[in-house]
Design brief:
six-stranded mixed β-sheet; 10 helices; binds adenosine-5'-triphosphate; binds magnesium ion
Length: 259
């Protein structure tokens, strides 16, 4: 006998954005590049609606962690799950499963308009490319409506970052990885982009993994922060406890980092 719930599930699939789930789960992930152990037994989870900060010295393994979780780097061991399903295969398979990333250096198509750049996200995410309402909503959410017809090449750095974020969101993610999104921005721009990150988290109920050297801004945005050092997890804790630990400040965040 087929239950009513099974019939409903068959005929009314939940839209991916509204699907309930436990978010991102990373279990025991290790990566080695030749002699370098870039990541050792890394485990953490990021439920929907949490901004999970990642910090640590240069070479600690932060970008490698993003690479593993977005399908660009194959782990030697470990599992990455999103809403209970294991993520496997090449980057486009991760993207279709609901994983998006924002690169440190804005990677957008300079010859296209702002709107066209955002529309490419629909295609990469295998979503309905005629979903113009969705694109309009994303342009508005990211503050790009008035620049929608401008060539991406004419934009300043903050606007380029907005475009990359909107294009990533157009793929329909459940989890978003951001690699130093505040790099190169001045204080006012950092506040503006931080507000946008919070807004995206609140309005789309995403799990967000935020790698950032600017530790003060990271502490203001994150519910928890993981400190990586030589590929190992030194600590996962609330921003208040991380920032009040002199060992972490002096030994592991280093002089190059901004407080
Ligand atoms: N493709 C690769 N091949 C070989 N070694 C690599 C590769 N990618 C990263 N590494 C090495 O792995 C370690 C971790 O690098 P990773 O880029 O993840 O650090 P990071 O924490 O992002 O550093 P940064 O703060 O400078 O961005 C470093 O020792 C780096 O040299
Ligand atoms: Mg890096």
């Amino acid at each position: 006998m087929i239950s009513g719930a099974a019939i409903l599930a068959k005929h009314q699939p939940l839209p991916r954005r509204l699907a309930p789930g436990q978010g991102l789960v990373v279990r025991d992930v290790s990566v080695r590049f030749g002699a370098v152990q870039a990541l050792s037994n890394i485990s953490f989870n990021v439920p929907p609606g949490e901004i999970f900060g990642v910090a640590g010295p240069n070479g600690a393994g932060k970008s490698t962690l993003i690479g593993v979780c977005t399908g660009q780097v194959r782990p030697d061991r470990g599992i990455i799950e999103l809403d209970g399903g294991a993520l496997k295969g090449r980057p486009h398979a991760f993207c279709h499963a609901g994983v998006a990333r924002m690169f440190q250096v804005p990677q957008i198509f300079s010859s296209m308009t702002v709107r066209e750049n955002v529309e490419t996200g629909l295609i990469f995410g295998n979503r309905d490319s005629s979903d113009t309402n969705g694109v309009d909503d994303l342009l508005e959410m990211t503050g790009l409506t008035s620049q929608a017809s401008e060539a991406a090449s004419s934009l300043d750095l903050l606007a380029r970052k907005r475009v990359m974020l909107a294009a990533a969101l157009a793929t329909g993610p459940r989890v978003l990885f951001m690699d130093e999104p505040l790099g190169g921005l001045n204080e006012i721009e950092i506040d503006a982009f931080s507000s946008l990150i919070r807004k995206v988290r609140d309005e789309m109920a995403l799990s967000i993994v935020l790698v950032e050297h600017k530790i003060r801004a990271l502490a203001q945005l994150s519910q928890r922060i993981m400190i990586l050092n030589f590929g190992e997890t030194l600590r996962i804790d609330t921003p208040g406890l991380i920032l009040s630990d002199p060992e972490i400040i002096t030994l592991y965040l280093g002089k190059k980092h901004e407080y």
